[in-house]
Each structure stands twice: as C-alpha cells, then as structure tokens.
Amino acid sequence: MPDSSRPLPKAQRVLLKSRRSLACSDNDVVVIEEDASTASSDDDDTETLPEDCRKKIRRVEVADSDKLVALDIPTPTSATSHRRVVLVRAETSDVQGTEEKCTCLRRGGLCSCSDDAAWLRSKRPMAAPKYVPPQRRRLSSTATSEGTVGSASVASRNVGLRPRGAEGFQCTCLKRNGQCTCSVDAKWLQRKQSAVVAYIAPHLRARAEEMKCIREQMAKASAEGADASSAAPPSPNIRTLARKWHAKLENGGAFRFNPLQAEGHVLVADDDGLLAECTELSFGGQGIKALPLIKGGSYQFEVELLRDCALIVGWSSAMSRAATFDSQAYGSASTGQKWHAESEESYSKVYGRAGDVIGALLTSEVNEISGELVSQQVSFALNGKDLGVAFQIGGRSSPLDAKPVPMQPHVCQLSDGSLLHVRIRGLSQKLQLLHQVEGFEPLIALEEAHFCSFSSAVSAASAERQASGLTEEQMRSFCLPDTHILELYDFTDGSSARELAVCVATQLGIRRADMAETLHVHLQSPSASTSLVAFRRLAHANRLDALLSTASAADDGGMLARPLRHATAAARKIVDEWRGENYRPQSDPSVARRLIHGSLHTQIPLPHLVDEKNRRSAHAES
Q: For a tag site, which of 70, 304, 350, 380 has the least CB within 10 Å?
C-alpha cells in the first residue's frame, strides 16, 4: 500500500484509508475515482462526511464551471472500507473540460488521450496547403510579427515585397517545383494593377474630348499670333448697367447717347455721350438710341456726319430695337427714302457726305384733360432745308392704326454703305443746333411735363404693340387679356348693348364711327342686370374703370364698372364659355426672351428687361 505522506506526482493514484485523509488533503481540486469494489453501492453517506470535506466538495462543484472535472463522491460501504481517489491540483494541464470525453484505453488506469493525439500527428503526413490564386491572396489579411495589418491590399503588398529570409517574412505562394515564388507573384500583381483603367461614363468621356479640342484650338490660335491681352474685355452685364443708370432713365437729366441701347459694333466715342461710331460691318443690324424720351411739345435734334456715312436718322419708341426701324420707328435714310415698319418710300434727295446735318423734328399733341398723346407729326430737315412732314401718327386716323407713344432719338447703320461716325446736337449747351427750325426747341430745353420715364415709355409702347395685334373677331369672342375687359352694372333696366356702347364711348370721348373698332359690349339677355365690355386698348379700360368706379358716379345714378378680376362668378364663367376651350391666355414673353438671347449668347435688351420688371410689378399689385 503506497505511503500517502510522500509528495504526490501529477495524476498519481493514491489509496486513502480513511475519510480523514480526504478531508485533510491540501489540493484545491479533488477529482475522485470510484473503486470497483464500491461501484455498486447505493448508500449515500455524504451527509456524514466532516464539515471540511463538504466544503471542499462544494468548492469542487463551483469549479465545474471552469471546465474542471468533478465527480460525485462514492459512498463507502463502511467507515473502515478503502476508497481510491486521484488528487489533481488546479494548475495542472491534464485536467480536461466537462465537454470533452476520454476516448483512450486508460492504460494502467491513467488517461493517455494527449499522448495518443501526439503519436497520431507524428504518424500522419503533412497536409498540402489549399490552392489560393494570387489575386485572392492579395485580398486576404496577413498577420506579421510586427502586428496585424488591417488593410488587405497593404498586407499583401508588404508580404510580397519583403525579401525572403527577412524577419517577419511569410511565404504564401504555391512553392512551384519546391521553390518560393512570392516575389514573382508580387511583380506580376503590380504589373496587372498598373494596367487597370478607371471606368468613365460615355458622356463624361465625350465632354473631356470636346474640352481637349477646344484647348487645342485656343493654343493654336495663340501660337498663330493671337494676342490674348489685346482682346476686348467682356461687356458689362446689362442688369448691372440698368441699376447704375436707373436714376437717369427714370428721373431724367441725361441728354446723350444711351450705351444700354446700342447694338452691334456701335460705340459711344466720348465721355459726354455725344459722339457715336460704328467700328465694323455686321450681318445683323447696328444702331444706337439717345435720351431723353418725350411725350409732348415740339422738339428737334440734329445729327452731324463726321465722315461719309450710310445711315437712318429718326425717332422711335422705347420698345423698338436700335438695329431696326419697326412699326414704332420713323426715320429718314441717306438713300433719300423714309423708313417705317421695315418698309421704305421715296422722300428726299440722297445725302451722306461728311459735314451733312440732318435735323429730326417731332410735334406731339396732348389731351389737356387726360394727359394722353393724341397725335404726333414727324418731319426732317437737311442742312437747314425743311423736307416736309414725313409721318402723321394718331389724330383722326382709324383706331386700327398705330397710336402715338413716347419717342426718343434713333440712329441706325444701313447694311450696305460706309460706317457711321456722327455727332448729335441739341442735347448739350456745348453743341447747339446749327439749323434750328422756328417753333421747335432743342432737346436740352425739354420741359418737365414733357419728359417720360423709361419704364412708362416701355409700358405704353408694349401696350400699343399688343393692341395693334388684336383683331375684331378676338374682341367679339373676348379672346384678349383680362385687363381689357370690364363688367358694367347698375345701368338702366332694358338698356340694349348698342345704348351701353354709346354711353361708354361718350364717357371716353370716342367717336361713334370708331366705336366698333375700339370696344365691344355684350349683353347676355335684355333683362340682364350686368354686361361685359371689351376694349382694344388697355388705356381705355383703365380710364373707364377710373371714371365709373368712383362714388360720384354712383351718386349721379349712372352705371358702374369693375375689372373682370372683381366681377361676379357668373360673369367670369360666361367669358370662359365665349372664349371656348381652345383659348390660351397670352403668356409672359419674359421666359421666351431669355431662352432666345441665351441660345444666341447675347444680353437681353434694356426694353425687354424693363418690360419684364413692369409685368412683375403689375402682377404684384393685382
């Protein structure tokens, strides 16, 4: 029987003769193996064990969570029976977890699982590594002796470039013919990576090629002698100039050529704005206009030719372009013809020699009550000789004819002939009129009552252009802007449409002969209490609204009027029925103008810019 007092080797089998030797064991963990002689015993005398032994047993059960083996203590048949146990310390490495089961033959009663596993590994051949392509090895993360590299590309690059035999080198190749090919694989991978081209969308690639061609053309032009420094600077933005000139355009005081109304290659050649010159020919029209705009009185200006010129001198509205003489422009050409609405008629003898002086005269008749222009008369003079009346605007003409609007001086370059170089007279005290006509004043002497602001002139000219485009059929079907329509109410019962039209014409001072072409009254039924009237011109609608919407008109017992936007719902519904489904209200041309000038890469003309501003203001007020 072995001596229990000797030092116990690891996992040595010990025969304990009494429970006391179990309780006095100083091992942290007790692993008890039951003796074959007591394996069949069903008695349980665990409770009769000493207190220290029970504590140690509980401690063994707690240690079971740390994967240390703990078996139930077998019950001895008697107090003097022998029991066999194995003492194992906590730090020993031979303790197996509860999840693992012993599979060895337990030679001599001891577990030999670890020895069997070591023997089996020594007998098995070394397994061949699984093939991994180079591109997959490059993406795999590799742990080196210096630390784990987080980026797969950096790890593969470090392994591939580290020389064989260096510290931390780890071979990842297939060892073809038993030799390491890591460096060859790394060079192959670098060559493939350098050949990779990033994807570029087709439209971006086309745009890049286009920009490349443009740069090559610019470089070629520069190499051929184009001096970039001598190129003309870009013209200032028209909106910026309009804000700068706002006070001069709206409040007066400017008597000069207006650079904001110059088109083509016509430039203002001096600081006072009294010289204008066309520098080169152009396929398009070229011209320039001057300030101020006038709406009454009799005034005159002169254009002195500083060299042989082919030009047109005259008057035009604020909406007329400087490059043409349209339906609101009236001029005398150096070819001896008078120009209006792109048409020409014989008028005077030919002129255009250096030193010639052409005088442009304008007489405006104004209604003293309403302050509106009634008629205008345009005439010219050549070197002091009166050439007679060229154009008569308004007056007793048909309502379908053009009505007078505020005018301003206008000089235009003819498409064929010498380039103009002129000086304007009558706009400054330094340059007085050379041939002043009796009854006419120079523009520098303009009275305040005869001055018209630029925005008002644009509004009047725009409204007249719109009215001249309306037909009688459009008036009868009310297919015209809502601002031209009024609703009449509180008139005498039983009044006919003819009687209402005569009453309206009398209020506005319109002749009965012109009544059919100026307005149209529609009465839904003889017993209707309201009626609708459409006007060709917006000015007539505004004046009637001002006359018949006041309290004095209601006190006199006469009829009243209100705009269509304030009319009854039934009246607006009737207008929609008369117009029909195909009617489309006239839209704001501002967007179309911007698109046109944007596509042509030209700036918006000043009149269009002011007209756009006027439309926004009118919309905000309504």
A: 350
